[in-house]
Specification:
alpha+beta, 266 residues, 2 domains, 7 strands, two-stranded antiparallel sheet, five-stranded mixed β-sheet
Amino acid sequence: SELKITIEKVLEEKKNRDRICSLEELNRLKDEFISTISHELRTPLMGISGALELIIEEIKKYPRDSVTEVMRKSLAIIDRQTQRMKKMVKEILDYAKMEAGYFQLEMGQVVLEKIILEAIKDIQGFSETKKIVISSHFDVGDTLMVYGDANALKQTIINLLSNAVKYSPVGGKIDVQLVRKDNQAEISVKDNGIGLEKNQLEKIFEKFYRVDQSLSRSDYGIGLGLSIARKIVELHNGKIWAESPGPGRGTEVKFTIPLAVKLPDQ
């Protein structure tokens, strides 16, 4: 009967709503748990990092032959892995703040050429481990300035570079370009790495998404770098996207930011 069909529809809709509510609650609890754990990890991690810096500085006072090569290499490994953990915890905390709407931008005039060169310098240690050459090209004429958060925008470029290094072959090449498109500044990071399928062009900006699970286990990052980059770009009223001719043919990630016409009133 029609009444029976109507009742069944209502019950099915209720089940679907309950299922959606349960999934949303689970997702909220998961994000809350990850954020809490990250906060708890940060304090001991900072203690380990500080103690390690003191040990490394103290060792420098001793004659080189009084410290074995094994000890030096072991300390270098500990230092690298500690820096990796600090980066991961920072990414999780930054993402948690963005999701909760607590991430604050410190706005001001930003010279894009300057932060791009700084980002390349900061990522150089990572790129050199794979003998990757990073080049930059600025086709802008005059200095390009935007109104934004210099540290956040620099972190965005670092995240794009880190991702490019991660998925590029040993001896690969990465090209960073800055061009002017009308009233927008466009920054692109292009690599000759593993490339992307069409259905991955949007997915790479999802949190915890990894293009290649085997590579991600051995390299830096937990799959939040591009998600954070997207949120930062969107907070600057910009747009970010990826392009790739296909698997094995490299990837180019681009983002645009509106140019600063004048310094806003303070």
